[in-house]
Amino acid sequence: MNPLAPEQAVPQTEHDTLFTTPLDKAARFSFDEQVVACFPDMIRRSVPGYGQVLAMLPIFAKRHCGYQQQTADGRRVSRVYDLGCSLGAASMALAGEFAATDLQIKAVDVSPAMTEEAKTLLETHYPEHDIEVMTADIRTLQLEPCDMVILNLTLQFLPADDRRALLDKIHAALGEGGILVLTEKTHDFDEQQDAWLVERYYDFKRANGYSELEISGKRNALENVLMTDTLEAHHERLAAVGFARHTTWFRFLNFVSIVAFK
């Protein structure tokens, strides 16, 4: 199999024009049908390094997934959870690099609009793979024993008080040698450094064609919806739940990705 190009894991849909007109100041960002329609374009133009993060997931999986799980028919597989899967880009990145019999992927999102489209995309592109798409709240979902968990830009949308409990559950479900890949937007303790990173992030968005109105509109819509932690807070929390080792393997401006090892 050929290495998956980052853009291949992100389905092509509509251009993101959600914030081209002024919104009510009380309007809040929601993963509804409008967002689903333009989500891949939004991600490509709003998340630095997203394609590179996706491209590394199967590389990590091949190194750390040990076929420790067993299916109902007795097959040995590596079970992977894609928590907060949105349209299933991470699941597609994995499926594109593994034989259909090697992985059991469980893709979960709380948004029915997202999971409906994700199911269609995954069934269309990877009909032979064992991929289950579920609409569920990952905070209450019972996790089966697994080899890998992906949390791509997901923890930041949960209430701060719920984050530790989710990571506790993930740590308990992972088999020995399993990994968690945690990708998040962060903020910096140092106000001057944080301000510089934020402004360069807005420059990144400007370079990708977003107007000042769109940038400010989305920023206002995400207020109290997307709540970041510092990189240090992420590592402290991972240590507290029991991950013996956790390393920041990727950073692009204020976006980071961490691998935590069970």
TrEMBL record:
UniProt EC number: 2.1.3.-
Binding site for S-adenosyl-L-methionine: 50, 84-86, 137-138, 152, 219
Domain of life: Bacteria
Chain ranges of the Methyltransferase domain: 80-178
CDD domains: AdoMet_MTases (cd02440)
Catalytic activity of the protein: prephenate + S-adenosyl-L-methionine = carboxy-S-adenosyl-L-methionine + 3-phenylpyruvate + H2O
Keyword Membrane among record annotations: no
Record's signal peptide: none
Keywords in alphabetical order: S-adenosyl-L-methionine, Transferase
Family from the record: Belongs to the class I-like SAM-binding methyltransferase superfamily. Cx-SAM synthase family.
Assembly and binders: Homodimer.
Function: Catalyzes the conversion of S-adenosyl-L-methionine (SAM) to carboxy-S-adenosyl-L-methionine (Cx-SAM).
UniProt-recorded name of the protein: Carboxy-S-adenosyl-L-methionine synthase
